[in-house]
Amino acid sequence: MLLRHASAGERRSQPSLDRERPLDRRGRADARALREAFHGYVVDRIVTSPHARCVETIRPFAEAAGLPIEVRDELAPTADGEHALAVLDELPDAALVCTHREVIERLFGGEIACEKGGAWLLARREGVLRPAAYLPPPSSVERTRIHRAAV
What is the reported pLDDT for 44? Predict the structure, then answer.
């Protein structure tokens, strides 16, 4: 699963300050709701960008699942797409990865979108990760629907 961090308000002017930007009220609610939203999915590893909004997004699920959170710089918004892809390639299929819009765009050439707090279920086809289904964020009215990817 490839998760975009939950809502964290407006981007800050300096990258060093933006790195520490926390989730806002809606983002914290979505982060708590991920425990229920991901119920039934097998997750063996949790990996995230080091940015505070990603770590905060994934923390409630990790605590509920009793899994450690692995932090990887290769999933930060300024990370090279090839390095992010290398991280995904090394993970088992039952991994949950939290990252940023920019990384998701680089990974899939801008062909897919992901709302804050939304997640893509990925499938390996012939050794290549491809988006298979989209899970809207818990705060979305569309949450009850799983969207199949056309990619």
Answer: 96
